[in-house]
From TrEMBL:
EC number: 2.5.1.9
Protein name: Riboflavin synthase
Species, as recorded: Marinobacter halodurans
Domain Lumazine-binding: residue ranges: 1-97, 98-194
Main enzyme class: transferase
Taxon lineage: Bacteria, Pseudomonadati, Pseudomonadota, Gammaproteobacteria, Pseudomonadales
CDD domains in the cross-refs: Riboflavin_synthase_like (cd00402)
Cross-referenced SUPFAM superfamilies: Riboflavin synthase domain-like
PANTHER family for this protein: RIBOFLAVIN SYNTHASE, RIBOFLAVIN SYNTHASE ALPHA CHAIN
Length: 205
């Protein structure tokens, strides 16, 4: 499990592609790899992957074709940066909300506003997923637990403070970029339960 509190950025050193499998080689901040072992879980842009090899502050991860097709990891190239979070341990503070590291869908950046001392990002999501997205609810974007701002038929926005921009890759996003989205599990459970009882939420609502 993860908490949605991004611990920093890792840099892609190389992507080794083979049929049906890609190996991502990333350099992490030196103080963030203490205690990492083969088999450890790390969320990269919100996608839970397993450490397969370690060389100092460099970690290796394998991603199958299914993962590449459902997330933005297949778009990564040498020099890119990703948000990372190591798996939560018992007793860790949950500063965001509980995440599984299983990406539900991707979203496209449609607009960016930069008022003084913050930034507002707008995302377009496949409409089938909008029924789980509510103003002031939780959502994870590239592994970061965020509070949803406003919602339309197929978009939502989030407001980011300078600290979030400093720690994450959000400051480098541009219109047209894709991001990974994990829906809040509690919200999904409630919406699906109500739907089974006949209280469907209209997708355009």
């Amino acid at each position: 499990m993860f908490t949605g509190i991004v611990q920093g950025q890792a840099r892609v050193i190389n992507v080794a592609q083979r049929p049906g499998l890609s190996t991502f080689i990333l350099a992490f901040p030196e103080d963030r790899v203490d205690g990492v072992e083969i088999g450890a879980s790390v969320a990269l842009n919100g996608t839970c992957l397993t450490v397969t090899r370690q060389e100092g502050k460099t970690l290796y991860f394998d991603a199958m074709q299914e993962t590449l097709s459902l997330t933005t990891l297949g778009d990564l190239k040498t020099g890119d940066h990703v948000n990372f979070e190591r798996a939560a341990r018992i007793g860790d503070e949950i500063g965001g909300h509980l995440l599984s590291g299983h990406v539900h869908t991707t979203a496209e950046v449609t607009a960016i506003e930069t008022p003084e001392n913050n930034r507002t990002l707008y995302f377009r999501v496949p409409r089938d997923w909008m029924k789980y997205i509510f103003a002031k609810g939780y959502i994870a974007v590239n592994g970061a637990s965020l509070t949803i701002g406003s919602v339309t038929e197929d978009t939502f926005n989030v407001h980011l403070i300078p600290e979030t921009l400093r720690v994450t890759t959000f400051g480098g996003l541009a219109v047209g970029d894709r991001v990974n989205v994990e829906i809040d599990s509690q919200t999904q459970t409630i919406v699906d339960t109500l739907a089974r009882m006949g209280y469907d939420r209209p997708v355009n609502g």
